[in-house]
Amino acid sequence: MNNTIKLAVASALLAAASSANAGIMIPAGDWTLDIGGVVNMYYTSTRHTGDNGSALTGGANNNGAKTKSNITTGLLPNYLTVSGKTRQNDLDVGFTISMQPGAATTSSLSGGGGNENRQQFLTFGDASWGSIKLGKDLGIFASDAILNDMTLLGVGSGAGTLNGTTTLGRIGTGYIYADWKNQAAYTSPNWNGFSFTAGVTQGWNANGTGSNYASNGASTEAGGASPAFEGKASYAWAGDFAGKVWVSGITQKLKTATQSARGEAVDIGATVNVAGFGLTGYYFTGSGIGNQYQFSSGLDSLFNERDSDGGYVQATYTIPNVGTKLGVSWGVSNIDTTGLGGDVNQGNASNEMWTIGAYHPLTKHLNLVAEYSDAKDEVDAKGTGLATTSKAKTVSLGAILFF
Questions:
Q1: C-alpha 35: how far from chain center
Q2: Which has the closest alpha carbon to 39: 84, 1, 83, 74?
Q3: Alpha carbon 369 to its chain's center
Q4: Nearest residue to 390 via CA among 332, 336, 350
């Protein structure tokens, strides 16, 4: 599939397990159209213990239930994508439009079970000088973190909560969500494995309208916001010892009529694959940006920036002649109190998760998935709040189909 779904799968560590390498190709005059997508569904059972927690582990949205079962989509939503490409006037021209029909069991703070439109963009360029993208697509900062997360084809955390049309995977327990953003971005040619991307993305604006994504009056992609600037650089190599290393970053000014701050973060990651074994390591650090969703809880109530960091490690092994990929990963995301007067009820917080999984290619396009995730949220007693600890243990079984 010549679209982001292909990239999100073929670039991820589980690409070998999901070897769907082509959509439905249709010649149409000067154009070649590609129809592709994803369908997935899982049975999940989550056991909650401890105090009320975040979306990772349950809490207030869990209505007091200790065990909760759902039949729902995983980290990837169900997708239907149409893309096209052509060569005109010495330019490679393309487009992608996709729709993600929701399959949530309940409505939620983050959009409920309705439809989403995560991708609508056009591209033009040439192999000699690179390409330009205009439209809505996956953000640049932290995109490689999610694309290399093994729970991309599974569930991870958040299955036992009201968190919308998808679960969380390892979002918030090892990396910050890259999100889907309106953007104008330039990607360089591939110079013997090295390339970079730089772009301007729609900002998150502190204008007092409020949002479940952000605190202190910050709202999602509001008009009039200062734009965000994002970029990444990577180097990939092939062979018996294949791999990739990357760095990325983001910065944006956050402001209201009377207050201003800056949210920013950088990351670094690497993944290597040899003889069926895969290993990934990732780390991020930021200020004023939060530790789960971008610019969520990144500021205290007086607009002081909170520091955050985290990362994950992941090991996988593909069984020869069977194709089943076995994986184990651990990650954590931390955010600190500012210790200032505006930081009341905000202590140092830590979200941690272990995941083990098995991903079996039943056919070229169909994968069976089994996962177990153990997530823990902790907040210390700094500020005026009390210390809390909440846990969620999730077993998930299901299947994911690529076409």
A1: 23
A2: 74
A3: 19
A4: 350
Q: Which of 363, 177, 144, 85 is nearest to 168 (CA)?
A: 177
360 and 387 Cβ atoms separated by less than 8 Å:
no
Q: Which helix (DSSP H) or strand (DSSP E) does residue 4 occupy? A: helix 4-10
Angle (CA) 249 178 184, round 5°: 70
Length of the chain: 403
pLDDT tens string 27-69: 988 999 999 999 999 999 999 988 766 656 654 444 555 889 9
| pLDDT surpasses 50 at 16 | no
pLDDT in tens, 234-272: 999 999 999 999 999 999 998 877 888 899 999 999 999
DSSP string computed for 271-324? EEEETTEEEEEEEEEEESS-SSSTTSS-B-TT-PBPEEEEEEEEEEEEPTTT-P
The 10s digit of each residue's pLDDT in 127-158 is 999 999 999 999 999 999 999 999 999 999 99
Q: Which CATH class is domain 4-402?
A: mainly beta
Positive or negative torsion for Cα 157, 162, 167, 168? negative
Phi/psi for 207 (5° steps) reads -115, 10
Q: How far apart are the first and last CA of the chain?
A: 8
